[in-house]
Amino acid sequence: MKQKLFKTAMLGTVAGITMMTTAIAAECIAPANPGGGWDFTCRQIGKIMYDIGAVDKPVQVTNMPGAGGGLAYGNVVNERNDDSDLIIAASSATTTRLAQNAYAGMTADQVRFVGAIGVDPGVIAVAANSPIKTLGDMVDAIKAEPGSVAFAGGSAVGGFDHLKPLMILKEGGFTDITKVKYIGVDGGADAITQTVGGFTQAMTGDMSEVVSFLANGDIRVIAVLTEERVPGFDKIPTAKEQGFNVVAGNWRGLYVPKGISDAKFDEWAGKLQKVADSDAWKKAMADNGLAPFTKVGGDFQSYVDGLVTDIAAMSKELGVTK
Predict the structure, then answer these.
(1) What is the bridge-based pairing of β-strands 17-24 and 60-63?
(2) Which of 108, 201, 243, 291 has the fewest CB atoms found within 10 Å of its own CB?
(3) Most confident listed range (221-230, 271-280, 281-290)
(4) For the chain, what is the domain count?
């Protein structure tokens, strides 16, 4: 059963009777274990909401891992459809899994997507001592011997991390994607550990997942999947400048239960916009390798619907789904 925190506030008196109200602490579900991108989204956005006064109590964070976000999605749809004090971390991984019917028949229109306020650039990384220096080296190695490069990523097979190297390989003229090895693990940190340990030859993930490992010198990021180089990480070349026209960013945002009122939806959109406009969020983005990307409010559901349609088509084209 969901637990909530309450704060009692005096409103005044009417006919000698003290009027009181309770402020309910909002809850943010991170559909994964602590330390991943969804956990970062809940904790950073929740903290900033409280720090800037958008909410009057600290936001509770509940980690609910399982089924690549499907456990949390099903819980919201089936158990908490009208909970107006609930927000849930979402990303491009969410839309990818919905597009591929990975949530047991659940669809994107069963919740309401509030918005995204940053994008986590996709990256391809290798161990610091890897002989692979560029995307060209990676593609050439796979063309010569498809099984020679195994990828580790924080999404399930067919998920967004899996799609990133497949899109690059397609751009490089390699189409036999069933021969490409991919191991889905529990988050980007585990994917890097697999790669640094030599169990896989490359890691596919997001910039925020590799920042600390990059600073420690454990890995080398051979490409960032953005239109231009990421500020603060200017030494990392884009895939485009290496001849592979692939842009893949993992937006970071929120969804809410579908059954809440339009007024409450607009209220959450307003709170999220305040976070996006804050200096604290700008610093959080810079510290964690996020690039600016703000799309908040009523048009975001349409944007998500478009993503789901596009990813479904791409997944079929790449042979990931039928």
Answers:
(1) unpaired
(2) 243
(3) 271-280
(4) 2
